[in-house]
Specification:
Layout (H helix, E strand, L loop, with lengths): L2 H5 L3 H4 L1 H13 L1 E3 H8 L3 H13 L3 E8 L2 E8 L1 H24 L1
Antiparallel strand pairs: 1-3, 2-3
């Protein structure tokens, strides 16, 4: 197994909750804060922290609007985020293939 492969993993995405958020957004392109929270069974505070980290990295964008006179926060994967996630997944697939060859 090549240790360099692990060192190349994007540390922003690699945290399990952020990887889950990125996976949801990669599948749906955009999702409300509430839907993400419920899908991943996360607390508001925990989700906000991870969303801020992903937003700071430029991987997701946040928009705020109203739906039925209620605030609506929507998260969307950016082009940069989509590319970073694809690169991350491809690297993980390579690591898994290497592991299977050695077993």
């Amino acid at each position: 197994m090549n240790a360099k492969s692990f060192q190349q993993l994007d540390k922003v995405i690699h945290e399990k909750n952020r990887m889950a958020i990125m996976s949801l957004l990669a599948a749906t392109r955009k999702m409300s804060f509430t839907d993400i929270r419920e899908s991943l069974n996360m607390t508001d505070g925990n989700l906000i922290t991870h969303i801020r980290t992903l937003q700071k990295a430029g991987y997701i964008s946040i928009s705020k609007s109203f739906k039925d006179k209620r605030p609506l926060t929507t998260c969307r994967l950016t082009v940069e985020g989509s590319g970073a996630f694809s690169k991350y997944v491809n690297l993980l697939e390579g690591i898994v293939k290497q592991a299977r060859k050695t077993n």
